[in-house]
Write a structure and sequence with these properties.
- The protein is mainly α.
- About 80% of the residues lie in helices and about 0% in strands.
- It contains 9 helices and no strands.
- Helix 3 runs parallel beside helix 7.
- It starts with a helix and ends with a helix.
């Protein structure tokens, strides 16, 4: 117990350094969900996968947990170069006492800012910059995260909805065709969704839908 308390006592520089690192680690863990959702490609991926399920009309198949798992691992795959850069430039030097906390934050924000800026529409970024009364920045480093993150988030949502619209079109055609056939046959009491579901699944399998969706998401970054 005394050894544990000595870590926070701050009686020597090593104890202070250990305390700061522990506090930083706890802070990162507490902010991890928000960072994952709003500062990476996770939002676009999970929204597109949800649109796939909605367009198929399979209700809870695939389950939400499966979609989140796929989106999570795809996010780690796509963001791996950025995460590695952050680790090499900020986390590892900080853990080795080679830079201060402020320097580590500056170095860590650089790669993630570069990723978000590349995927953010100029119109969305200008919206938040104008609202904040900011002048045109000379570089990405001059844009604060409080401005870049929401601009990146709404840009990702717009892209995801555009992809979702394209996914919906072929399945909507099947629904309309089935509904028209049932109406012409006088089978108005039979729900068209029940009849069209196997045809939509068949189409999705024949065109290798999961491959097409995944490849489109990967090429988008």
């Amino acid at each position: 117990m005394n050894d544990f308390m000595s870590v926070f006592s701050g009686t020597d520089p090593e104890s202070v350094s250990t305390s700061v690192k522990l506090l930083l680690l706890l802070t990162v863990f507490s902010l991890a969900p928000g960072i994952l959702i709003l500062m990476t490609c996770f939002t676009r991926i999970i929204v597109v996968l949800s649109f796939v399920r909605m367009s198929l009309g399979t209700q809870q198949t695939p389950p939400t947990q499966v979609l989140i798992g796929i989106a999570l691992f795809m996010t780690f795959f796509i963001m791996a170069p950025t995460f590695n850069e952050i680790n090499d430039q900020a986390i590892a030097p900080l853990m080795n006492n080679e830079m201060s906390l402020d320097e580590a934050y500056t170095e860590a924000s650089g790669p993630i800012k570069a990723f978000m800026a590349e995927e953010t529409r100029q119109k969305d970024l200008s919206l938040f910059m104008n609202y904040a009364g900011m002048d045109k920045p000379e570089s990405i480093d001059d844009i604060p995260l409080t401005t870049l993150v929401p601009a990146f988030a709404i840009s990702e949502l717009k892209t995801a909805f555009q992809m979702g619209f394209m996914i919906f079109i072929p399945f909507l055609v099947i629904d309309m065709a089935v509904a028209s056939i049932l109406m012409s046959m006088g089978m108005m009491m039979l729900p068209p969704v029940i009849i069209s579901l196997p045809f939509k699944i068949l189409l999705f399998v024949l065109v290798d839908g999961w491959y097409l969706v995944t490849s489109s998401l990967l090429r988008g970054f």
